[in-house]
């Protein structure tokens, strides 16, 4: 990949030709702007692992998790809220990679002339708000309401996938939406940002992320493939981290993102700048996956689950979420690069 300084020699490093040829993997992705779209479009995963991959698009993490639970997919992208719900309900998955720290990339947008004053949360009372349920946006919507002293039943929360939010917005069927790009950009065209995910996290401590999760049985059977997956995603992230200015609307990487996800190329650079893409060293540290029970990702999942239980969205929570977070595959990549 252009700009990458950590490219490895290819599939033979991770999988033998015989094992790779026999491996079929189904991966679920979401309509989220992210650097690794470049690797998907270019066929990097197939070229470097030798495995046969099937890519399945999901509108939300909740749907991706359902597919994981049923065995329809092996690896999938899901938000921290959906992962917290799934693991609380006993879905046997592991968080092994981060697509992105969401930071300020999601937002609540209110329609202009809807009667909502972005500076006065009480004007949300009685309004219709579209949000994908069990998503990070839904989680932050609930957190924001509590932060403002409002109850969820004082507004009308409508369970909508991002494309449905865009359609409802254009028809004037909703007054506000909490979502991510590319849908977020469409809402901003004739709406005003009331609050971002980053502002909510800063004020409440409830941060969110988009993670990559794997069925535990698949990971244990194919650890080299999972490590190779981490390696490829990180190299795409590294290309962006090192050369963000090169990701212009007409550049190959941005065109790849739009080809996979949709949206306007002009929106991609600014949207990517709202996310954080941690390095593998950061992921291996207690800041994310490392440090055993000190791992931040573990505590974020537990805190999310506790909040959702308090809101009546979860019937029960786990006493310990450490079995669902692993740094093993990140550490495999770091060890191989050092070797």
In spatial order, strands of the major sheet run 2-1-3-10-4
Regarding quaternary structure, what we see is single chain
- Residue stretches low in confidence (pLDDT < 50, at least 5 long) are 1-12
Q: What is the string of SSEs from the N terminus onward?
A: HEHHEHEHEEEHEHEHEHEHHHHHHH
Helix content: 40-55%
Mean pLDDT: 93
Task: Tell me the CATH topology of the largest domain.
Answer: D-Maltodextrin-Binding Protein, domain 2
CATH architecture of the largest domain: 3-Layer(aba) Sandwich
Number of domains: 2
Overall radius of gyration: 20 Å
**Total of DSSP H or I helical runs spanning 4+ residues:** 16
Q: What structural class results from the helix and strand content?
A: alpha/beta
Determine the CATH superfamily of the largest domain: Periplasmic binding protein-like II
Strand content: 15-25%
Shape: globular
CATH class of the largest domain: Alpha Beta
**What is the CA-CA span between the terminal residues?**
21 Å
Q: Tally of extended strands?
A: 10
């Amino acid at each position: 990949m252009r700009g990458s300084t950590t490219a490895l020699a290819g599939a033979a490093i991770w999988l033998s030709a015989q094992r790779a040829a026999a491996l079929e993997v189904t991966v679920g992705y979401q309509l989220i702007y992210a650097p690794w779209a470049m690797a998907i479009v270019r066929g990097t995963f197939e070229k470097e692992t030798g495995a046969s991959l099937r890519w399945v698009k999901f509108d939300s993490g909740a749907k991706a998790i359902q597919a994981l639970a049923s065995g329809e997919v092996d690896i999938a992208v899901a938000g921290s809220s959906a992962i917290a719900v799934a693991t609380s309900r006993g879905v046997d998955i592991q968080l092994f990679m981060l697509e992105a720290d969401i930071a300020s990339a999601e937002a609540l947008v209110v329609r202009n002339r809807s009667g909502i004053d972005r500076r006065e949360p009480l004007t949300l009372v009685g309004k219709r708000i579209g949000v994908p349920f069990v998503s990070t946006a839904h989680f932050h919507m609930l957190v924001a309401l509590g932060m403002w002293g409002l109850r969820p039943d004082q507004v009308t929360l409508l369970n909508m996938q991002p494309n449905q939010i865009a359609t409802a917005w254009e028809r004037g069927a909703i007054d506000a939406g909490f979502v991510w790009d590319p849908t977020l950009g469409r809402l901003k065209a004739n709406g005003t940002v009331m609050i971002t995910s980053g502002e909510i996290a800063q004020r409440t401590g409830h941060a969110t992320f988009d993670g990559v999760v794997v069925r535990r049985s698949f990971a244990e059977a194919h650890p080299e493939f999972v490590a190779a997956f981490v390696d490829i995603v990180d190299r795409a992230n590294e290309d962006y981290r090192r050369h963000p200015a090169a990701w212009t609307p007409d550049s190959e990487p941005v065109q790849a993102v739009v080809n996979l996800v949709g949206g306007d190329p002009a929106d991609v650079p600014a949207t990517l700048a709202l996310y954080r893409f941690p390095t593998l060293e950061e992921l291996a540290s207690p800041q994310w996956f490392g440090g055993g029970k000190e791992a931040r990702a573990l505590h974020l999942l537990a805190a999310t689950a506790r909040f959702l239980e308090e809101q009546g969205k979860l019937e029960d929570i786990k006493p310990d979420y450490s079995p669902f977070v692993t740094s093993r595959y990140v550490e495999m990549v770091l060890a191989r690069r050092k070797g």
